[in-house]
Design goal:
The protein is mainly α and about 450 residues long. The chain is about 70% helix and about 0% strand. The chain has helices spanning about 15-30, 35-45, 50-60, 70-80, 90-100, 105-120, 125-135, 140-150, 160-175, 175-190, 195-205, 210-225, 235-250, 255-265, 270-285, 295-305, 315-325, 330-345, 355-370, 375-385, 395-410, 415-425, 430-449; strands at about 1-5, 10. It has a two-stranded antiparallel ribbon with strand order 1-2. A hairpin with a 5-residue loop joins β1 (about 1-5) and β2. The radius of gyration is 22 Å and the shape is globular.
Length: about 450
């Protein structure tokens, strides 16, 4: 039996098929725009390549569009019916992909766990486990899974740089920021084309409040080769979102707007990451007192189009945020109702956690949109420490602490706002927006005394 470049068994009939699949997988892991076309070409050359069919299905799933799920389910069924040559590893991948397309992410991750136990260098299984575990807010599983396989890798194993990048990100989400930075920088040095490793270092720097080092990190990457990211897929927008957080913390809002307009907004679509990145950044700017002009308009259209289309809980809460901040209250009411309908249709169990929390956040944001700041503050305060199931990172979910503090200020609960902002200032003592809000809280509390 043939194996891929990491020693995992494949049912290919010749070495060329294996090498073409390995090359396609590397393009996918490096977030290259060309990956989709290369995968399609591999399937033209080798239509029964099971692992390439799995990769194709995973790429469709990662577009996070519910309309594509039936297509992926059909691909899984057709492959399973026709690929009697598939080995046990490949059949496991097909089962996991089918479970993912059916909405049972927990079952899919269990299948990837089994695959990794048998083949700890199965890089696609690790990446898909990492991706879905992140979007369901399971930080412990992020780190536990990569640590469970890391001993099977060494510096000569192809793709070890991607594993280091995943471990760096997992360390971030478990609060080990200095270790995350060190391992992330090692991964970037080994492979500066992997946006996930760059992203992991950006997280570590942000969560350490290391603004100047964050600016320097991005400046060095771009200065070294200005066209480095010209071939990257839409995940690049999230990298620029991270780059914008450092000047935002420093109060350099003109630079944030420049990055928004030149790096993020040109790619504005209804793609889930665009909605998350743009709405989050505009909200941070407005909370800092910045007039963002008409930049919300296109986002409002994209968010309204998502009513009834719920795939990622983290996208859902950003759609609700967008509709609230653009005053599209009728659309927001329909969006919240569709979230409630979705939750009611789910079987009881762990799968309800994320959707239930997304509904609670959306309900709080709807109250804020209606001007019920006390109600919004109460709702956000009640769930403040329970947001992990909606997915996203610590850096991303920090937005909801900022919103909670702002709603407390608008509800004139100045002492509570002071406590929230002082806690934030301990982590980010040099954050200009935090100090600005802290000043408002102090002034309000003093006037009320």
């Amino acid at each position: 039996m043939l194996t891929d470049c990491r020693g995992c068994p494949v049912s290919a009939t010749d070495r060329a098929e294996v090498e073409e699949h390995d090359a396609a997988l590397e393009l996918f892991l490096n977030y290259e725009n060309s990956a989709g076309g290369v995968v399609k070409q591999v399937l033209v050359d080798h239509p029964s390549s099971v692992m390439t069919l799995v990769l194709r299905g995973a790429m469709l799933m990662m577009l996070e569009a519910s309309a594509l799920h039936p297509k992926v389910s059909a691909l899984v069924t057709a492959t399973a019916d026709s690929a009697d040559h598939a080995n046990e590893r490949e059949r496991g991948h097909l089962r996991a992909l089918g479970q993912w397309a059916a909405g049972d992410i927990r079952a899919a991750t269990r299948e990837w766990d089994l695959l990794l136990a048998a083949e700890p260098t199965d890089l696609l299984a690790l990446k898909l486990h990492h991706y879905t575990t992140f979007w369901t807010g399971r930080a412990g599983a992020l780190l536990g899974t990569v640590d469970g396989v890391i001993d099977a890798w060494d510096q000569t194993t192809p793709g070890v740089d991607h594993v280091l990048g995943m471990r760096s990100f997992a360390l971030n989400e478990n609060g080990r920021y200095e270790a995350a930075e060190a391992i992330g920088r090692e991964a970037v040095a080994a492979n500066p084309e992997d946006l996930w490793s760059i992203h992991a270092v950006a997280h570590a720097l942000e969560m350490q409040g290391a603004g100047p080092r964050g600016d320097a990190f991005f400046d060095e990457l771009v200065a070294e080769r200005p066209d480095r990211w010209a071939t990257k897929n839409p995940f690049l927008g999230h990298i620029w979102w991270h780059a914008a957080l450092f000047p935002w913390d420093a109060g350099r809002y003109d630079r944030v707007l420049q990055l928004y307009d030149e790096r993020l907004r040109p790619a504005s679509t209804d793609f889930y990451l665009d909605i998350q990145n743009l709405s989050s950044l505009l909200t941070r700017l407005e909370l800092a007192g910045v007039d963002v002009g008409d930049r919300w308009d296109e986002l409002g259209e994209h968010a309204a189009a998502r009513v009834g289309d719920h795939v990622l809980d983290f996208t859902d809460v950003h759609c609700a945020l967008t509709l609230a901040r653009t005053g599209r209250l009728d659309d927001l009411d329909r969006f919240v109702a569709s979230l409630a309908d979705r939750l009611a249709g789910l079987p009881e169990g762990l799968g309800q956690q994320g959707p239930a929390m997304a509904l609670a956040v959306a309900d709080a944001l709807a109250a804020a949109g209606r001007g019920d700041h006390a109600g919004a503050a109460d709702r956000l305060a009640a769930i403040r420490h329970d947001l992990a199931p909606i997915g996203g990172s610590h850096a991303q979910r920090d937005l909801f602490d900022l919103l909670l503090a702002d709603e407390m200020l608008q509800a004139e609960r100045f002492e509570v706002a002071l406590g929230l902002l002082r806690a934030r200032a301990r982590r980010w003592p040099d954050s200009v927006p935090t100090q600005h809000k802290l000043g408002q809280a102090v002034a309000g509390a003093t006037a009320a005394a």
